[in-house]
Design brief:
The chain has 535 residues and is α+β, with helices and mostly antiparallel strands. It has 18 helices and 10 strands. It folds into 2 domains: 9-191 and 208-320, no CATH class; 397-531, Immunoglobulin-like (Sandwich), CATH 2.60.40. The strands form 3 sheets. It has a 4-stranded antiparallel beta sheet with strand order 3-4-8-7. Strands 6-5-9-10 form a 4-stranded antiparallel beta sheet. It comes from Dyadobacter subterraneus. The chain crosses the membrane at residues 62-82, 89-110, 139-169, 176-194, 234-252, 264-286, 298-317, 329-346.
């Protein structure tokens, strides 16, 4: 229900694919397999081509919905892991509560996430599925799934060393050498003309070890970041450390057990190697992203990894317990945790999701009318209008009355409204921006101010004939839990955006888009954007 037909950030790569195929700028193979940042996104491109062919235009809403169905494929892969040691479907339910929930809300909002991370994990688990000792006659089916994992997202590469290690520990020399021979050729082709867009700069080996290790533990426990805003690092570090310590405890216990290991160097199970696959993804992301910011480990687009790490940790623990009583306790604990995270994600993320959607809707108006996005490309140039020839911007603002400046010119700002503005060059949402970031906070609003379909409209005071800019607002409560208990709490409104528009003086109005201009509230008159002080 939150999917909107508006391109977001890296979605430009999908439009480039469709445009280049239509223009025949390159051969089809080069277009499908070329790099997108650090990744080769074959399946995202195939989906965008198919949707454009069937719909005559590229619809990002359709692609988001299709990408969400990839979670079913991921759920099936996780179910195969579960079936390798347990046939009772009930104990699988905590996994479903984690995967099919708003915890992974990025897959509901961004077309690329459903065709990159979700498929990369699913294909990696399928490839490991065919390397089980019980699947020796069909082991070669793992090869196409390894290729698929790497062509969905670069993180899929992490399955390769695990697959080789698993073959070695099973003493399967023939399959190991065949698999390795193929991979040498495949990786040579995969990295042909490869250019990394990520520059990792560490002050030294010890500093690199500390930073990557810290980021790795944080990423491992990031499924519970929802529990606290003020202590988000504490709770995620705690869960990450707990998961890793418990896993190492199982490993040590197994090493000292008297189980007969004559057929295996080390008896990796399917569930354990799958769990290690997700940990290897965490390590890859920690290595590649920690130099930008430690906060990247908590990014919404990575939460599908976070949920899968917790889900596979549960399956690993469940598979290692010996008695039905212990298994029941594990099911109860993880079930309550999964349900709690599910409930919290419904309540806590609603405001963030609404704000994200309304930013995209605002840009669906800003670009056609000003040839610029307000919320995107803050560190580069906006594409030209012709770039969107295979896409049609949706009109989410059909009530043109709110865009009329005339009636507002004669009004005054209500005396009770408190309006604050500041400028910053250090914003988490717009890191490296070439534009100053402006932040607004509006409080003491009328009690009847609606909580939906409300936007800030910025009118150029000196050029009243020009169409205004639209800025999305976010409801800013004292605490998210308090807002759940008190639905009538108004709170304040908050907005943050790169200052990309020309002109200095703007009249700022708060408008409800499904009403006429008579409902608009003047927030600031002749606001000088250049005079806004820095924090």
């Amino acid at each position: 229900m939150h999917a909107v037909n508006v391109p977001f950030n890296d979605d430009e790569g999908l439009l480039s694919t469709v445009n280049d195929l239509g223009n025949k700028n390159s051969d089809v193979f080069e277009i499908l397999f070329r790099q997108h940042n650090d990744h080769r996104i074959l399946f995202s491109r195939l989906a965008s081509i198919a949707i454009t062919f069937l719909n005559h235009k590229l619809s990002f809403r359709i692609m988001i919905i299709c990408g969400y169905f990839n979670l079913i494929l991921l759920g099936h892969a996780l179910f195969l892991v579960y079936k390798s040691f347990n046939k009772d479907a009930l104990y699988f339910s905590p996994v479903a509560w984690l995967i099919f929930s708003p915890i992974v809300y990025a897959t509901h909002l961004w077309s690329l996430t459903g065709f990159e991370q979700s498929l990369s994990i699913a294909f990696s688990l399928y490839s490991l599925y065919f390397l089980q000792p019980s699947r020796q006659k069909t082991w070669y089916f793992s090869i196409p799934f390894v290729m698929a994992a790497t062509l969905a997202n670069l993180d899929g590469l992490s399955v390769i060393p695990l697959a080789l290690v698993w073959l070695i520990t099973q003493k399967r020399k023939r399959e190991f050498w065949l698999f390795l021979s193929f991979l040498v050729v495949y990786l040579f082709l995969f990295f042909a003309n490869y250019r990394s867009s990520t520059v990792m700069e560490f002050s030294g080996p010890w500093q690199a070890f500390l930073e990557v290790s810290s980021a790795f533990v944080l990423f491992t426990g990031s499924a519970v970041k929802i529990l606290s805003d003020s202590r988000v690092y504490l709770v995620t570090y705690a869960l990450g450390a707990f998961i890793l310590i418990v896993y190492l405890g199982f490993v040590v216990s197994r090493l000292f057990s008297k189980t007969d290991k004559k057929d295996f160097i080390y008896p990796f199970t399917f569930v354990e190697i799958s769990f290690l696959k997700l940990l290897s993804c965490a390590l890859m992301i920690a290595l590649g992203r920690v130099t930008d910011s430690l906060a990247n480990m908590l990014a919404a687009r990575f939460q599908i990894y976070s949920a899968c790490i917790l889900a596979l940790f549960y399956l690993f623990v469940l598979s290692g317990l010996k008695t039905s009583k212990l298994k029941s306790w594990a099911f109860l604990c993880f079930g309550l945790l999964g349900l709690s995270l599910n409930f919290l994600s419904y309540t806590k993320y609603q405001n963030d999701v609404t704000y994200h959607v309304e930013k995209l809707k605002a840009d669906s108006y800003n670009f056609p009318n000003h040839l610029m996005f307000i919320y995107q490309y803050s560190n580069g140039l906006d594409p030209a209008a012709d770039f969107y020839k295979n896409y049609a911007f949706s009109n989410y603002f059909k009530n043109e009355k709110i865009f009329r400046h005339g009636n507002l010119a004669s009004r005054e700002v209500p005396s009770q409204i408190i309006f604050k503005s500041k400028k910053t060059n250090n914003s988490f949402n717009y890191q490296g921006s070439n534009f100053p970031i402006i932040s607004f906070e509006i409080s003491n609003l009328p009690a009847k101010m609606p909580k939906k379909n409300v936007f800030l409209v910025l009118f150029n005071h000196e050029k009243t004939e020009e169409k205004p800019f639209i800025v999305a607002v976010k409801h800013n409560y004292d605490g998210w839990f308090r807002s759940v208990l008190n639905k009538n709490e108004q709170g304040s409104l908050w907005a943050e955006f790169p200052r990309k528009m020309d002109g200095n003086l703007y009249d700022v109005a708060l408008c409800q888009t499904n009403q006429g201009d008579s409902t608009a509230i003047l927030i600031a008159k002749k606001l000088d954007l250049d005079s806004i002080s820095e924090e």
